[in-house]
């Protein structure tokens, strides 16, 4: 029997961030918005600055004028959220025509077999059509993974596992619908990277800014 391909995330051994070196950022950074902000969005936070109902808004974490979300992330999902004031960069990140891959760490109920993973790779039928080819592999639980608040509800009699799933489109709740379509409901969803941009060890609720796309990081909150 063919074993499912297994994925090991090439990331730091723990999700920690430090303010060391932040004071070395140029003074200009404090007077204008960075070209790009990478934010580790916690569970329960909307991809907008204003809160709604029981969901928090980004203004509780980021106080930078003139930046906007580039590629939304559902309130009940976690992980990398990008913000920028550069309209061209925002379009390049969020427009599916540019085919920038988004990689998610997905905790699912059950353990997907080779057939389920291959179906995710080839494309699955959803109510809005067949998904584009994707990358999908079993992975270990992300190292140093933070606790979610509230905790994930799990059924004791059913094991859980993690999938690294990479897609190049952005339909509504697509990842959750894809795993459900192959018989493995999503329990927890974390976006790990968007194109060349990754969590880079950010703790939940923390952000880091880039003065210009492709230049070194300047500051961690």
Your description of this structure?
- The protein is globular.
- Strands 1, 2, 3, 4, 5, 8, 9, 10, 11, 12 and 13 form an eleven-stranded mixed sheet that branches. A two-stranded antiparallel sheet has the order 6-7.
- The protein is built from three helices and 13 strands; from the N terminus they run ββββαβαββββαββββ.
- The chain has one domain: 2-Layer Sandwich (Alpha-Beta Plaits).
- The longest helix is centred in the middle third of the chain and has 9 residues, at 114-122.
- The protein has helices at residues 87-94, 114-122, 174-181; strands at residues 6-7, 36-41, 68-69, 78-84, 102-109, 125-126, 129-130, 135-139, 160-167, 186-194, 197-198, 207-210, 217-220.
- With 221 residues, the chain is an alpha+beta fold.
How many DSSP-defined strands?
Answer: 13
Main CATH class: Alpha Beta
Helix content: 10-25%
Strand content: 25-35%
Helix-strand makeup class: alpha+beta
Q: Considering the protein shown, what is the CATH homologous superfamily?
A: Alpha-L RNA-binding motif
CATH topology: Alpha-Beta Plaits
Overall CATH architecture: 2-Layer Sandwich
- The number of helical segments is 3
Low-confidence runs:
7-31, 216-220
Rounded radius of gyration (Å) = 18 Å
pLDDT averaged residue by residue = 85
Oligomeric state of the chains? single chain
Number of domains: 1
Largest sheet: 11 strands, mixed
What would the principal axes of the Cα set say about the shape?
A: globular
The SSE string, one letter per element, is EEEEHEHEEEEHEEEE
Distance separating the two termini: 49 Å
């Amino acid at each position: 029997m063919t074993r499912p391909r297994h994925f090991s995330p090439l990331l730091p051994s723990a999700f920690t961030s430090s303010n060391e070196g932040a004071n070395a950022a140029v003074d200009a950074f404090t007077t204008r918005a960075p070209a790009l902000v990478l934010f580790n969005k916690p569970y329960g936070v909307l991809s907008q600055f204003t809160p709604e109902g029981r969901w928090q808004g980004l203004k509780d974490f980021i106080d930078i004028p003139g930046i906007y979300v580039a590629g939304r992330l559902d309130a009940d999902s976690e992980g990398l959220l990008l913000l920028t004031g550069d309209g061209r960069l925002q379009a390049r990140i969020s427009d599916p025509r540019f085919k920038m891959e988004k990689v998610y760490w997905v905790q699912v109920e059950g353990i997907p077999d080779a057939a389920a993973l291959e179906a995710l790779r080839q494309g699955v039928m959803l109510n809005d059509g067949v998904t584009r080819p994707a990358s999908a592999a079993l992975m270990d639980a992300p190292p140093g993974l933070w606790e979610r608040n509230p905790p994930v509800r799990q059924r004791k009699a059913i094991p859980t596992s993690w999938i690294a799933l990479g897609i190049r489109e952005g339909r509504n709740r697509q990842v959750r619908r894809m795993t459900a379509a192959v018989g493995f409901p999503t329990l927890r969803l974390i976006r790990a990277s968007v194109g060349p941009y990754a969590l880079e060890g950010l703790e939940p609720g923390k952000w880091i800014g880039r003065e210009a796309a492709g230049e070194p990081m300047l500051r961690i909150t």
